[in-house]
Amino acid sequence: MHPIAKKLTQYAQNAVFLDTETTGLDKDSEIIEIAAIDINGEILLNTTVKPTQAFSDSNEAYQVHGIAYSELLHSPSWPQVQDQLLNIIAGRPLLIYNADFDTRLMNQTAYIHQYYEVEYNAVCMMKLYSEWHAAYTQEPKKRHRLIHAAEYCGVTVNNAHRALADCMTTLAIFRHMLANCDKLFDLNSYKQRNKRIKTVANEQGRLFGQTVVITGDLSRPRAEIQQIAADAGCRCTSSVSPKTTILVLGESDMAAPSSKEKRARELQAEGHPIQILSEAEFMALLDE
């Protein structure tokens, strides 16, 4: 199982998805809304929080989430909410999109309220999604905003920048990631599976005299196919040259021509008798 798939499967057991809305981003900002849900989408916590300082509708954060100070006057204070949250999570992992920000604001809010800070068991869904996306697309890891991750996963975003809505969006992204773990590319596994070995061609083999190059991802370990080929008399090399007589294309090279296939076709055009075969075709040739 892919390492990311293992993580997702583990988190799917008992994780809590959490999101917050705040009065801003700086060291004086406080949490004014928090929500938490479980893997089934059941709401565990959804409340506004009364801040210690008033803010106006010109507040930059207000322009994002639309939560006015007047709506918070009868909300519980952070110490009450923190106690409730800790009873809910009880050590369970918290999956938070941009966890560093939310956990900082949670403890910052506790400090402002002269309450104790907590070491949360938080997992950053933004970082986890970045790893998943890179493995899924075979593109470099990069930072993805929640709305962009949702769009890629086909998740409809409703009432964005409210805590509960963002929790639901994060959960939907998580479910999409979990459902598509079978398509993840594992570089370490790929390297191990496609590790080359030195072989000696069997002079008594039926295909003695053939020079074979194998490229791309294969359905079985490359070393295994190389050894089968060597036992059949093939000389296995790593690069295409005029001496090459067979080029074997792995599955990953079937969609678009690799540099080795392009070189082989150039040599074919020059009159060199190079066979270009799929893995299945090559294995059939070996079995003849």
Automatic annotation (TrEMBL):
Residues 202-288 form the BRCT domain. InterPro entries: BRCT_dom, BRCT_dom_sf, DnaQ, Ribonucl_H, RNaseH-like_sf, RNaseH_sf. The keyword Hydrolase applies. Pfam families: BRCT (PF00533), RNase_T (PF00929). It comes from the Bacteria. Gene3D superfamilies: BRCT domain, Ribonuclease H-like superfamily/Ribonuclease H. One of its GO terms (biological process) is DNA replication. Its EC number is 2.7.7.7. Keywords: Exonuclease, Hydrolase, Nuclease. The keyword NAD does not apply. It catalyses: DNA(n) + a 2'-deoxyribonucleoside 5'-triphosphate = DNA(n+1) + diphosphate. One of its GO terms (molecular function) is DNA binding. Signal peptide: none annotated. NCBIfam families: dnaq (TIGR00573). This is DNA-directed DNA polymerase.
